Amino acid sequence: MTEQRAVDALAALGNPTRLRLYRLLVRAGDEGLNAGDIQARVEVPASTLAHHLTALARADLILQERRGREVVSRVNYGVMNALLAFLGEHCCAGLEALDDTCAA
């Protein structure tokens, strides 16, 4: 994962509603949820929900798939795991192992 992709993903999750949506989809697992099911659980107006789901999809944190007349959203676990790995990449390596990736 690049630093920019990590920044984009974290920015998308930096909104309380999107974070709640994302955590709901994590709990839903591979089957995901359609917009109606999400809306019933998070209690967000449809237009607002669409905006937040689009932001998560743009950050590649969720995948959206059309199934008949409904769109099902589910977590992109590959990206989630890559983000977690990126964040913990140099965990406990000590400051002497510091390189250009942390210098800013």
Major β-sheet annotation: 3 strands, antiparallel
Number of helical regions: 5
Q: Summarize model confidence as the mean pLDDT.
A: 92
Q: How many strands in all?
A: 3
| Uncertain stretches | none
| Name of the CATH class | Mainly Alpha
Instruction: Calculate the terminal CA-CA distance, rounded to whole Å.
Output: 18 Å
Q: Could you name the CATH homologous superfamily? A: Winged helix-like DNA-binding domain superfamily/Winged helix DNA-binding domain
Range of strand content: 5-15%
Helix- and strand-based class? alpha+beta
CATH domain fold name: Arc Repressor Mutant, subunit A
Within the largest sheet, what's the order of strands?
1-3-2
Alpha carbon gyration radius: 16 Å
Categorize the overall geometry: elongated
Task: Report on this structure.
- There is one protein chain.
- The chain has helices at 3-13, 16-28, 35-42, 46-58, 77-87; strands at 33-34, 62-67, 70-75.
- It is an alpha+beta fold.
- It has one domain: Orthogonal Bundle (Arc Repressor Mutant, subunit A).
- The protein has a 3-stranded antiparallel beta sheet with strand order 1-3-2.
- A hairpin with a 2-residue loop joins strand 2 (62-67) and strand 3.
- The mean pLDDT is 92.
